[in-house]
Design brief:
It contains twelve helices and eight strands. It is α/β, with parallel strands linked by helices. Strand 5, helix 10 and strand 6 form a beta-alpha-beta unit. 47% of the residues are buried. Bound molecules: guanosine-5'-triphosphate.
Length: 303
């Protein structure tokens, strides 16, 4: 199964609802517009965006004399696509680059670090993984397993060590190895815990300071929030809080193969003006894909 197929299968629920709406294919009625807005809200897009998109499409339909559901389906995909923030610099392609993965517990940070490390290693990059999750012993072991699978060294310290100083050590090691890509996993934390968010802000600052002093020149540091797409609108709250505390650079959405409805991708990217760097579509090492707003919107509306 291709990656687009995996994504399309994951977004089945949203597509089914939209298919139902477009089913009759004839000229649309007033009911269509009301149901469109409801369907978009149900797809996790959030009420405000759903209303905007629906109004926009209605204006376009009037201007361009689009009357049938089929004509509107393609136009809807376009309208959704336009709302995504595009990637200016891909931190996983840029060299050198350091990325800190943050997010709530179980979002898929460690798995995503493993997947990205593996792809980058296969592409011939010198990759170093760091574990700044010093809270859970199992998390350090889990990252180690991913590092072995990916064939990439993992820098780790004992449970209970200061996560900021671990990041310093990770950069020391990356500097020594002249690494192209440094991936740092952090401990899962609730966006509502101000103490934990402050700790994370320190981790980011220390990492940035050390990265500036790399022997080969300053290494850019990016902070990427990993969100489980199945958390729906709560994902938007997570993004708002993490962004406020840390200043995020972009998003990775995981578990789009599951019961996710997908609209959260649009809500976060559009509301926060953040690009989606990758999407997770399964648990295996190869189940990660680059985010393509065009394909995503077509998978979402079945255009
Ligand atoms: N189906 C599916 N499962 C995923 C995906 N990404 C991660 N998972 C699963 O989600 C669960 C949690 O993933 P982890 O990578 O451990 O999450 P984490 O954010 O590191 O968790 P903490 O260390 O507790 O903060 C694991 O069972 C993963 O296999 C995905 O894209 N699709």
């Amino acid at each position: 199964m291709g990656l687009f197929d995996a994504l399309a299968r994951g977004l089945e629920r949203s597509r089914e609802a939209i298919n139902e709406l477009f089913y009759f294919g004839g000229e649309v009625t007033e009911d269509f517009w009301e149901e469109l807005e409801d369907t978009l809200v149900m797809g996790d897009m959030g009420a405000e965006i759903a209303m905007d998109v629906s109004d926009d499409l209605r204006d376009l339909a009037a201007r361009k004399n689009l009357k049938t559901a089929d004509q509107l389906r393609e136009a809807l995909a376009d309208k959704l696509e336009q709302r995504f923030t595009s990637i200016e610099v891909d931190p996983f392609r840029e060299t050198p680059s350091c990325v800190l993965f943050v997010g709530i517990n179980g979002a898929g940070k460690t798995t995503t670090v493993g997947k990205i490390a593996s792809a980058a290693h296969e592409a011939g990059k010198r990759v170093v993984i760091g574990s700044a999750d010093t809270f859970r012993a199992a998390a350090i072991e889990q990252l180690d397993v991913w590092g072995q699978r990916a064939g990439v060294p993992v820098v780790k310290r004992d449970r209970g060590s200061d996560p900021a100083s671990v990041c310093y050590d990770v950069l020391d090691e990356a500097d020594k190895q002249n690494a192209d890509l440094v991936l740092i996993d952090t401990a899962g934390r609730l966006h509502t815990s101000s103490d934990l968010m402050r700790e994370l802000a320190k981790v980011v600052n220390v990492t940035r300071k050390r990265a500036e002093k790399c022997a080969a020149g300053p290494m850019p540091v990016r902070v990427v929030l990993v969100i489980d797409a199945g958390t729906g609108q709560n994902g938007l709250n997570q993004a708002l809080e993490f962004n406020e505390a840390l200043g995020l650079d972009g998003i990775i959405l995981t578990k789009l193969d599951g019961t996710a409805k997908g609209g959260i991708a649009l809500a976060v990217s559009s509301k926060l003006g953040l690009p989606i760097y990758r999407v997770g579509v399964g648990e295996r090492i190869e189940d990660l894909q680059e985010f393509d707003a065009h394909d995503f919107c077509r998978a979402l509306v079945g255009a």
